[in-house]
Amino acid sequence: MNFEQEFTREFGNKYNQLHFKSAVVKKNEGSLVVTFLYSSAEKELADEEKTEITNWLKSQLKLEKIALKVKFLRVFVEERLIQKAIKDFFDRKHKLISTYLKDDSFSVKCTPFDVQVQVELSPRLQELFNEHKVQDELGKFLKESFLVDFAIIPHVNNDLVDEVDIDNVEMKTTYKLTPKHKVEIIKNVAGTGFSRNSIKEQRQIEGMEDTETHEYMLVEYISNIRAAKENATIAGYLRKIERKDYVIKKGKRVGQEKAYYPFVVQDFRGKMDCVYFCPKVYVPEMEKLEETMFVLVHGDVRPNQSGRLQLIADKIALAEPVKEKVQERKPVEPDGNVVEIEKLSAVEQDSMFGRQNKYNKKIMGRTIVVFDCETTGLNREDDEIIEIGAVKIDDGNIIEKFSTFVKPSKPIPYAVTKLTGITQDMVKNAPPIEAVIKDFYKFSEGCVLSGHNVIDFDIHFIKRAGALVGLDFDNELIDTMNEARVARLKISKFNLATVTRVLGISLEGAHRAWNDAFATAQVLLRLNSVGGN
């Protein structure tokens, strides 16, 4: 039976505070133990209510040979209990990570909205957290255990060093300066304000001489903030600002209303959801803020209830961007000639696709270049292409191959080498992107461009590389991720590995540009074949 549906059908909203935790059969005791949790903030269940639920379970389960035991446990949100639960979680689920974490690696802070757990990590442990999605898993575990929302905030401390190399290999980490833009402060609006001392301190951190008379700061681009972060400062144009009110439920001011302002800040490279819980003294100034105003905002960035990053603001100022002189780049004619185009045999295709040679109008009568890029990272503004792979489809036939490494201007991060297998030695003699992109422009000129998740990722790297030499990639785009969604494949994830698996297409050597491009081409053809997929 569907327990939750049957329980709701029987009792309605009467026991909404109860959370079904587990049902465990204990063979040695000959019993089934059903456990419910409810918050200590809720009224304690009366004995007759417990009896009512227990009797209903007996009538539904109709147990004959084993006894039914029902537990109703109140959950207390206490720092000590949370710390213990976190330790148990890592001991059971991630023993390797647990080895490197200490009791003081975690700090717990209860707020009126959630419980914030800050985890201090070394750079290597941060990689493991990301690789195994530990942050999401821990947050889900704690919510199920304590019935409140948790914000897991990883704090990377570059001074921490793992006593033992986890992978038993030499690890080298390359750090690069985060691109920033200059912002001049006009007027403090809310919070403690951006003082002259804080600006001076920031300039010293940046290694700048404090000789400027203007109160400006160097602020990182929003697109570079991709994880929870303390003491973040962003600047940009206001979007969607509005006032809302909520009633305080705890503390000395319980029952009082307090204003808060959700808004969006958008700079030249990205945007960030923000919220400011506003003391009464700052409400008049906050009410003067309007869309399109340029603001400087400081606070902590952490995931909200839907998992999106959100900046919890503690101070806001009116500001304006300081325009930097940009040296104009003259367009360069496409004369690369560094990538050799390989012709592909149609006979090979017959063996790969069988006799499936008729496709719909999206394919037939058109020339399509399906491509994939491997890059030094996921930042579309600052990371670089290290490999491009592509195939050309003409009237449903794969006819040409384009494949080359690209020499980046900076070293390839260890995590990228581990994922793709592309090392620094493999690209050290490769042509630069300025030459490669000219050849790719000629290869794809007049063609439809296609790729998997190409709209959100690959095409941005291609367009940026083209702009370096004055080339504009304005080709029509077909994204096979969208094609797979429209095809209503019976899958919950639409990454290339999942889509190829459900379509029966081989994906050997994943995360290499040519292999991914060739597999994506087969996906495109299969999804647009006459008669469906």
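Next protein, fold it too.
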Amino acid sequence: MSAEVILKGVGICPGIAIGPPFIFTKTTLGISPDLIVGKDITNEVARYRRAVQKSHKELEILRRDFLDDLGQEGLALIGTHLALLHDPEWIKSIEEHITDKKNNAEAAILATLAHYKECFRLLKDPFFRSRFIDIQDMANRLLKALSHRTKKKIDKLPTCAVFFSDEISTSDTFWTKKAGVIGYVSRKGGPSCHAAIMARAQGLPYIVGIDVSQIPIDMLNTVIIDGEMGVIILNPTPEHRETFYTRQKELKAYESKKIKDAKEVAITACGVAISVKANVDYSDKLDPYNHAIDGIGLFRSESIVMDLRLMPSEEEQFIVYKGLLDKMGVRPVVIRTFDLGGDKNVHHNTTEDNPFLGCRATRLLLREKHLLRAQLRAILRASYFGFIHILFPMICALDELLEVISVLDDVKQELRDSHVAFDEKVPIGCMIEVPSAALIVDKIIGHCNFLSIGTNDLIQYTMAVDRGNSLLSHLYNPLHPAVLMLIDHVSKIAALKKCPLSVCGEMASDVRYLPYLLGLGIKEISIHPRFLHTVKEAISQITLVEARELAQKAL
């Protein structure tokens, strides 16, 4: 086994990875299917429900961490696991096993899981049959919550490892992403499995159809995987290493070329320039894309809180905001005030029955004005060094906008009294992401210098659909006439009032929807930097006359 061995699997995610192997074996949790009696039944049901609560919290944290990285598909994966966790039939089976058959929670989970496994085994469609892994993944999460084990798998992974496992679950992709895994190999899986979706979102190669149990990990130093060809090379020869290093460099060069091409101005086929800016988080690396964007159209300032796991001071915020201005030069930087609450419940620790409709974003900041004032001071101080815009999220009524502007005016006066320099004419904007705001935009626009449509929430609230709920994903439709009518209404009012308008939601980064947005009069978009090349290329193929006709048909 010290010699080179070449294996052939099925490549389901393209790319090349070269690094040490890590073979992950699912270990048992030492579960004992004990019987319970008397009062223990009530305690055991409560114990199971606590495990559900703990698992739910873990999934919410994952959804928060992956919200802006993985788009709708990634959110749907986590939504699937949340839905399974609270599935009435699953819960009924577990609790019946505890109350009627006197099983402890672990045994009840295993018995129910075995039943589901048999049901899924009988399904004819391989796609639906493969979905059993999600139920198994959810069950494992519950078992771990019951066992209180805090095994740190992440510590065992070597740097930049290729991850081998018999089957890779969605949960596995979460913790391996944080560990810096560079590729995946498994026996089970397919291009539509959730792990593959996550791997593609991260740009990592993935090969399936390999019996991992037959690979002698102790005798391997390096492996090469080619996700396009489905080839795995164990203990590669120097010649093969050189060949694949060269191919890897060529792929990176191609990606660099895409970034370079993205630097070209976005112009439609009929010669109209479209402004393309970037949506940015605190941890994003902007350098590769710095010269390909017309500015930062949305800086999610709450990402500072989520990354640091604490509320940054005014001075810490000032340093971050000034750093963004230094990178952008004369290009504008739009800073959205903290959009905390909802699925980003970091600082705001109260439990709400419906957090997406609860105390979040501007509502939260108006309740805790010390947070708002500190952030506005930091933004205004930084505005002296560049072109900053302030964007207020989740505005649903004119009262809210006027109140937050009043706080901004007070903070400006404080800085004047303290002789602190800032841009007296710093532009302020309102996010249009709630239907009520879209419908009264003619009132809102009189108090703003610009508007930004957040399509993610606008679709969610218009359609009354949690965008992370896979059971309702068919209803989350960006092209629903009601959604397009709201965008059309906002666009027409903005054009009439000569107010700059941008779209900063995922809809703007999806080339399927770009013609509709341009046809509705949108001339500025803000997207994740990784979509720059694709989006600019798509824009170059669109003519506005055809786009308008398409949009009118859709309306």
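About the second fold: Residues 33 and 428 are 61 Å apart (CA to CA).
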